[in-house]
Write a structure and sequence with these properties.
Elements lengths: L19 E4 L9 H16 L3 E6 L11 H11 L9 E2 L4 H13 L7 E4 L3 H10 L30 E4 L8 E6 L3 E6 H4 L3 E4 L7 H11 L4 E5 L6 H10 L6 E5 L24 H12 L21 H18 L4
Parallel strand pairs: 1-2, 2-3, 9-10
Antiparallel strand pairs: 4-5, 5-8, 6-7
Helix pairs in contact: 1-8, 1-9, 3-6, 6-7
Length: 332
Amino acid sequence: MSLALHEAGRTDSVSTLPYRGRFAPSPTGPLHAGSLVAALASWLDARAHRGTWLVRIEDVDTPRCVPGADEFILHQLAACGLTPDEPPVWQSRRGHLYQAALDRLIALDGVHPWAYPCACTRADIARAHERAGHPKARHGELVYPGTCRPENGGLHGREARAWRLRVPQGEAGVLHWHDRRLGHQEQALDTAVGDFVVKRADGLWAYQLAVVVDDAEQGITDVVRGEDLADNTPRQLHLLRLLNLPKPRYLHIPLVRGANGEKLSKQNGAEPLDLTDPVRTVRAALAALATPEAGLMPGWTADEPQPTPAMGELLASAVASWRPSASASARR
């Protein structure tokens, strides 16, 4: 499904399309227990809906990527019985698609351009907040104050560094959406995020634009990913609306946390998957999806059967447990 397919008329629903899901790891290191849970959730949801499952290597942030990690991730997935139904794609080879999307955003009609160049550094944004008397945020990025918006004087004679996307103000900027597990969600883009970057100052493409373009171009109908990415969804919905692209369904799953309570991640030293016994490793990941908090695998038991099942048998059992949850959920 290409961007061009939707230029003539907007398609708001994917309900009539065959299910297509994806797992999109960043090759900044090997998969760990948390990333396997996310991979399994997306694979199980695709299989439970008799759909297609894809793998996309999100290597657009090239400075953070580890050479060879992409192929090793594919090897890890295969060892766990998770093989994509179509050849994987790499974001680093898709820059022409992102540029075409940015060109469309720049060309959109409106009182003011939706996409505009920005000269601000993080320090500039922090100083603008200090001058306005806003408290310093403890976590996350500061909301962009609109310094380089055309109606505020644009670049003020400075050199452009990045490209930002304007977000609507007030009630028009409140994005409402439904998550299959979390239910109704909403976010005021103007106060929570502000105009956000779609092309970075280092020339690399921002995650928000790349993921929206890729999901549309690959025909993704269902996005299954970690709960930490839920607050990215409104920005992506805003891009989908401006680019006239269909909105996928969303399912955000609970995070796997370390002993310190923080999300298990490569940044905090999560160990690579132990593939000496892949069946045991996959069973442990399935147990994380079968918790009452997750509520995704009714009837699944974490008890290890004797004798130990083969990988195919284990995964088939997991799909059967996922299926009631999948068919009963509001996939809208």
